[in-house]
Amino acid sequence: MAQTLRAMKKIKQVQRAREERFYKNRMKGNKSREKARVEMDIAQNIDLVAPAASRARNQLAQTSAAKEATTSKKNSTAQKPGSAMDM
Fold it and tell me: 47-85: buried (b, 16+ CB within 10 Å) or exposed (e) per residue?
């Protein structure tokens, strides 16, 4: 009886390994297919994507310009004439 139970465990292990191999083989090409599908979708709908990218680029430029203006304003107020730093 113990031999039968060991054999059943071994059979389950083999079945699980076969199922995993089968699944991996089926899913092997999915990444490339999905990437190709996404690229085709973007190419067909570029008019929707381009304005969003442009808007994001403009927003990034505005935030960086605002940060630069803030830091330059802080630097100019920190070094006023007649302050303790000049002495």
Answer: eeeeeeeeeeeeeeeeeeeeeeeeeeeeeeeeeeeeeee
- Alpha-carbon span 60 to 12, nearest angstrom: 56
pTM: 0.39
Whole-number Å distance between alpha carbons of 38 and 32:
10
> What is the residue-level pLDDT of the chain in tens, covering all 87 positions?
899 999 999 999 999 999 999 999 999 889 889 999 999 998 888 777 777 777 788 888 888 888 887 777 767 666 655 555 554
User: Which residues have C-beta within 8 Å of that of residue 85, sequence separation ≥ 6?
Assistant: 79
Q: What is the DSSP letter of 83?
A: S
Total residue length of the chain: 87
Q: How far apart are CA 62 and CA 68, in angstroms?
A: 10
